[in-house]
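Lab notebook page, bench 4
Experiment: in silico fold of construct C2
Operator: M.H.
Input chain length: 593 residues
Purpose: comparison with the prior construct
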Amino acid sequence: MNTTDLAGPPPSIADHGLIGNCRTAALVSSRGAINWLCAPHFDSPFLFARLLDRHVGGAWELQPTMAFRSSHAYVPDTNVLETTYVTDTGTVRTLDFMDVTPRQGSVPAPGAVVRIVEGLAGDVGMVTQCTPRPEHASVRPHFSMQGRQAGFSGFRLWGPGAWTVDDERHALELRFRLTAGQRVSFVLEGPGMEVPADPFQALQGTIDLWTRWAARCTYQGPYRSAVVRSVLTLKLLHDTDTGSIVAAPTTSLPEEIGGVRNWDYRFCWIRDASFTLDALMQAGYMDEVSAFFEWIVRTVKVESPEMQVLYPISPEGSTEERILHHLEGYRRSAPVRIGNAASRQLQLDVPGEVLDALDFACTSGGYDPQYVWPHVLPLVEWVCTHWHLPENGIWEVRGGRRKFVYGKVMCWVALDRAVQLATRHGLEGDVPRWRKVRDHIKEEVLTQGWSSRLNSFVQSYEDERLDAANLMLPIVGFIPGDDPRMLATIDAIRAKLVEHDLCYRYLDAPDGIDGGEGSFVLCTCWLIDALVLAGRKEEARTLFERLLARATTLGLFAEEIDPATGEHLGNFPQAFSHIGLVNAAIALDPPQV
């Protein structure tokens, strides 16, 4: 087996493509290694986690036995990943995907991991090694063999021949040769994953489903290919079992190499999911609306004062944060965390994002709010009672609660949208009270959230620091985009938070966490949106096209980018980043009505 992936530097975050079945997802490198997979759910324990530890994390490699060059691309308008290997003796292609062929209707059916290998030219020797490390890479499983099938820890792996065991690496191995025109298949089944009767038919069924889904994108502007790739990625993060949406499919990919800002994003943040829903609706997708709000009804409970802001995806999932000390972390960026302590924080903006998404669904998609309103109404009353409190904010700071401007503004949004929904649809609610509190919040923010010294809106009432989240003020309708205060805020952020055309969230703010981080892709997109609303469209377009040039070769974005090197940092791919890209593209070239 070629072990260069272990002997050399670890594969970069950006070197991976995402495949998935709308219940979980895997990351596949351009050298044919599945370096990340949790199964059967996004928040299940890792099966492959070489991204977090090259030596004990586990992976499923598939590559030629000789020296090769490789490249990968998505089959157009799908989530099927094509990797091509060129050797001195021939060329081979693999098609990696998770089967989503619908069993009935058009809803993706979460299926197994399928790897199809095709000979394109010449004669190429191939080898695959599967090194599973279940339970967060804490177990070396026992292998049971039966013909072409190998079993381990509740999983089953099929190949085109009999598997052998590499005792040194405690891995399953299979060698084979392909000439032009030949093709073979591999299937990895886990709990709850449906196994296709015919892997080759599953390939066509999966391609057909994704192609049809991509074709429904209503955006027809000059950046359609980037928007389609983003919505396809966002769809993979949507759990069809529950209607919830994960923030990212990974944990602990660092925001700074060697740093400690390593978080688990394999959960449903109400905020992130609402943003995702909004972006999908902007691009013409309404099917996810009912499923998400039904999840809200089943799951989200109003508590006082710490309304829960994130939830597990699966019944077995847990948000309790703990450290896996046996894993070294991506490029030795420790600690590796599972769970997220932000679940116990107070974040005032969350009801605003829910109400904003609901209002957009009703006005643009014809969604009837009658069913969900009794469950949303307590969120509105919660805002009326708690909007004045200090909080942890959208950035989930761990350095003490403050009165963040963005959180106050989103409380204003919650009440503003509640007033609109109630009056437009004749819904129950104390509209006069909501108007009164809404207007009071606005007056307070304009007074206490503004700094004459900085000539800008500030991060919180307690300090005079810039925060890119305030770029959202005109986007949510709190203030006109060409208001002099907003124009000054944009200029201040451009001067202090933007480096090489990429925007940081904030700098030197007391967030209670050591180390630094990269620029935030979503904040760069917010800056683009704000510039459009400020009437500076060409400036916005230049920034957007420079951002698109920093995408991975597959058109994906991590959470952050190092402005100096262009390296992708943080969990990958990140819903926030692709949400921002969709919204920015539509802001630059809105649909013609």
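Observations: The longest strand covers residues 113-131. Residues 1-7 have pLDDT under 50 and may be disordered.
Next step: discuss at group meeting.
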